[in-house]
Design goal:
Blueprint: H1 2-31, E1 34-38, E2 41-44, H2 45-53, H3 57-60, H4 65-88, H5 95-117, H6 126-135, E3 141-142, E4 145-153, H7 156-167, H8 172-179, E5 191-195, E6 200-201, E7 205-206, H9 208-215, E8 226-228, E9 231-241, E10 244-245, H10 248-279, H11 284-291, H12 296-305, H13 309-322, H14 329-342, H15 347-360, H16 366-376, H17 387-401
Antiparallel strand pairs: 1-2, 3-10, 4-5, 4-9, 6-7, 8-9
Helix pairs in contact: 6-10, 12-13, 13-14, 14-15, 14-16, 15-16
């Protein structure tokens, strides 16, 4: 009897040991690769890594090292706890919240689609970047920087007396502090700080007269009396860093970003045109608007808002056709040619419309731009993405020919 009981006990002990051992192995296997668990939701190490990699660099610095990772996982756990509680309380089923969640989902999908189908497919080599640099030096010229003091008065006669005293060797600082009528800079010896002669100048403001006058002087020199919008000043130049062309290596990253942005926009617009043909969308509000009688101003605004170049041509052409005596008509006809030239690359129709501008509005300023476009239609040039960029190209050409 006792032997039988002893055997049974031994068998139970072995069975319990086997069960315990298997459960431990299974537990290790189940938890392998997990960083945390909240209820039935498993948070894997991989998910933690992905969330960490998406953090901005300054945020990642907060969670470096083992202690930082523990803190980061705790933050994920807390987030999951709140999420599960929100689900249990059915917050996600509230109408407004459902709309927000759906819009967030759309935004996330669009962002990923844009990245994968457009951004990741853009390749810009150093040769293209350098070519852009060589053709657009004016974009990479750092503006001149100066540091100066001034003595100011609204009375020219007073400035003339100061100038004689300065020429006689009297201290500029003393006169500026004790007699200048500029109550802002005067107590600080007339200090204007650093400024770009073409830009904003402390107390002076934006003044072409002031900036042009001081720009021709060198450090240590005292200017003649400068007349500008507020009155009269005598200026002492303390420092001057001339404008310079930045090296390609200094601006290469900026050029890459600019070219990538331009290429992305072109690819995005082209993809939209292609996808519109595939899905055939119908904008009923737009159709109602098109049926209504529209003023030149409305047509012009519609053209500015339109992405499809063919629709932009239609709106501009309607202005030129229906309102040929309106002030917008010459520009609208020009823009028909411009869209044909730069967006659709249809040089024949572009030429016809530019010539029409010259023929119909020979005395209008836009006729000059139309002639310039005709002269450059068949020449190799960077794409002009706006009327403003065309004007800039015209000005650069005129400056180069002087």
């Amino acid at each position: 009897m006792f032997k039988r009981i002893a055997v049974i006990c031994t068998l139970l002990t072995v069975a319990l040991l086997l069960i315990y051992g298997c459960s431990k192995d299974e537990q290790i296997q189940v938890n392998k690769g997990l960083a945390a668990r909240v209820g039935d939701v498993k948070i894997s190490e991989k998910k933690v890594d992905i969330k960490f990699d998406r953090l901005p660099p300054n945020e990642q610095d907060k969670y470096k090292g083992l202690e930082g990772r523990v803190k980061f996982v705790k933050a994920i756990i807390d987030e999951q706890i709140m999420y599960q509680e929100a689900i249990e309380r059915k917050i996600h089923l509230i109408d407004d919240v459902e709309e927000i969640l759906e819009q967030n989902r759309i935004n996330s999908l669009l962002a990923e689609y844009y990245k994968r189908e457009i951004i990741d497919k853009i390749e810009i080599g150093e040769e293209e970047s350098r070519s852009y640099y060589d053709e657009n030096h004016e974009q990479f010229i750092t503006k001149a920087l100066m540091k100066a003091q001034h003595i100011f008065s609204e009375d020219r006669a007073k400035c003339e007396k100061w100038k004689k005293r300065l020429d006689g060797g009297e201290s500029f600082n003393k006169i500026a502090k004790e007699e200048s009528e500029d109550l802002v800079t005067g107590p600080n010896l007339g200090n204007l700080g650093y400024f770009n002669p073409d830009g904003y100048i402390n107390w002076v403001g934006y003044s072409d007269k002031f900036g042009t006058a001081v720009e021709k002087y060198e450090p240590g020199e005292i200017t003649d009396i400068i007349e500008f919008e507020k009155g009269f000043s005598i200026v002492k130049i303390n420092e001057k860093v001339p404008a310079r062309l930045q090296e390609f290596s200094e601006v290469e990253v900026r050029i890459l970003e600019k070219l990538r942005g331009q290429r992305a926009k072109e690819a995005y617009d082209a993809m939209l045109i292609k996808l519109r043909k595939k899905y055939k969308p119908i904008n009923y509000v737009r159709e109602q608007m098109l049926k209504a009688t529209r003023s030149p101003e409305q047509l012009w605004e519609m053209a500015q808002m339109e992405n499809d170049p063919n629709d932009r041509i239609r709106f501009y052409a309607e202005i030129a056709r229906r309102y040929e005596n309106h002030k917008y008509a010459p520009m609208a006809l020009f823009m028909v040619g411009f869209v044909y030239a730069e967006d659709l690359q249809d040089l024949t129709w572009a030429h016809r419309n530019f010539q029409a501008v010259i023929d119909k509005y020979p005395d209008n300023e836009i006729a000059k731009s139309a002639q310039w476009m005709i002269d450059n239609l068949y020449k190799k040039h960077p794409r002009l993405d706006s009327f403003k960029s065309m004007q800039k190209a015209m000005e650069q050409e005129e400056t180069g020919n002087q």
